[in-house]
Here is the input.
Amino acid sequence: MSAPGIFDAFRSNGAPTYYDSDKTPFMADILESGLIYAFVILAFSFFIILPGIRGKERIFVFIRVTVTLFIGGVIMLTNFGYEWEVAEAKNVRTKYKAGSAGEITADIGVHMGLRGINVTLKAEGENRGPFNETINYNEHFDWRWEQGRLGFGIFAGRFNQEFRARQFRGTPFPIIWIAEYFIFDGEGVRWGRHYRQAGWYAHIMMWLALPLWVLTIILFFILLKYGAYFLMLTGGVMVIANIIWATLRNPFELLIPFSAEHKLEFHFGASFYLNLFTGLLCIILGAVIWFLDLRFPELITNFFGVDPLQDDNFIQEDSLSPDEKMNGLEMTGIDNGQPHNSHEDRYRKPIPVPTPDDAEEYEEDDIYELPVFEPKPAKSNKFGKRKSRGLTQRLQKPRRRSTPDIPE
Here is the structure.
């Protein structure tokens, strides 16, 4: 037999090198981590192009992108998050397994979401009692979405079936004890039914907020006023989700006792407050944008980088009565037999329409004279160059006809 060498490490009987498995406890929600990563990638993709934007528009684009992605990220995270309601208890003395007299001292936590609950159980060192094994559990129970029949058969609800599967698998007693509170459905003890109904209607509101958020982004490129309306509507729907969860989750507060000193008392968690804060923020921002668009249109259009005149014709014509539209056509003048519709009409000198009483004051040739153009003197605007090269304006499709040439 050859002497051991540097290539014999971690080998036995000449077999390939063996590496023991690295078992790590469940520390984070994979779905939540994926959603956070997706929105971070989107934000990073926008931020790397910021150095190519000139002037103050760089700051404006940064603010718009950050706030927009924050709202979308909150909608998705709170929809799938499991911290709408939480409860924790430290150093709880409890049994570990059914049929065993041994006890452990563990930390127990319950994290509740719109679709189910996560129950955690952790004990280390001497707190494990007589059990020489790793005690670090995170069990998930899902109640989507049917109530099902009573019992634990094939026609029972999803939560009841998962509960019975955990019993057969030998899940620790504290986790089974907590999950058992959600399978009762009678005698007024219906925490599982009420939480399932609250999660159902709240998650519908959160899915409704997502397309409203997308429409808000699109409308901010078209018309700021309607973008502000949809932003407020998005925030209102998110707040309604909070109201539904707070009112339907249960008529009686859920309290799970383990001893006289240790009880699991539930309270609203981070997802609930984050969704509520973001919804109120959307309502406030929408109201501020609507007010600025009403009173200070140049300021808000500079911030969003849109053309304040791109929809003037459509808005003004829709708001005028038929008589006002006819009077406006008579005062704009005639060019090649067609009325002027461009934004340069405001700089044309109107041609008065003669009446029978004033016919003597006009000569016959004056009636057919071409209108006199008096171009408005150019105003010095230090942002003129920036506005013409704005990122948003370059992406916008022109919606006005080109200005007709001034006849000599």
